[in-house]
Task: structure prediction
Amino acid sequence: MALEQRPVAKIDRAVIFLGPPGSGKGTQAKVLAGKAGVPHLSTGDMLREHIAQGTPLGLKAKPIMERGELVPDSLVLRMVAERIERPDCSQGFVFDGFPRTVTQAKYLGELLKRQGFRQPFVIHMVIGTALLIRRLTGRRTCKIGGEIYNIYDRPPKVEGICDNDGGELFQRPDDREEVIKPRLNAYEKLTAPLVSFYRRLGFLYEIDASKSVAEVEQEICQAVASMRGAR
Ligand code: AP5
Result:
């Protein structure tokens, strides 16, 4: 069977999607986790869930996220540590939007070592700024199942309605143009240094995230196939 047709087998470690806002981390992380049968762990989704439920963490995170800044490491780390201790994470998982600072990456490294996991595999989504802005301003998300659309490149069959479950589509508050710039700045300042951090450790695999969803998915499948068997 040709490499690109092979199904993705079980993931045996943490796979990390690293890339700027709008690069397609969520779109691809969900697909990969689904194919591999492991949890998709989006720290952005977890924080939005806390906000929706009005928890103390949600109350702290809400104004920070609305400004397009990063939520403090201490809050995010506690939330992640609790999540990956659950039994469904015992074989591996796919991170989307975590780690986002060098402090978070170092903490994750310790946590994975303590729990007996192999070294993580990092997929770096490489893409230019102009495309990011189009993707972020065009993104719409389903209120029920969380399916991600784009009014320019991946529209639903019926405007404003999810193809899968008929849920209403909404625009994330931080996808307003005035919040996109601070988010991109936060990425450049605090998260981009993780590229060289993971490259130095030899865990980084670069993907051209400007291609179509299907092409990017295929490149990721090939990258994950190369990961299997690696230490
Ligand atoms: P988070 O929810 O993680 O957002 P983000 O990193 O800014 O990333 P996005 O969700 O905006 O983009 P994406 O790369 O997932 O792209 P997507 O697949 O949706 O974080 C939100 C906030 O939470 C942060 O700002 C911060 O405040 C806080 N936070 C979260 N984690 C944190 C942490 N670890 N530490 C501290 N704070 C944290 O795609 C975007 C659009 O493009 C969609 O419309 C999609 O359909 C389209 N698209 C995707 N791929 C393609 C393609 N190949 N071709 C054409 N269109 C495509």
Q: What stands out?
A: The first strand starts at residue 14 and ends at 18. The pocket of BIS(adenosine)-5'-pentaphosphate is lined by residues 19, 21-27, 42-44, 47, 64-65, 68-71, 76, 97-98, 100, 104, 135-136, 138-139, 148-150, 153-154, 174, 183, 212-213, 216 (CB under 6 Å). The radius of gyration is 17 Å.
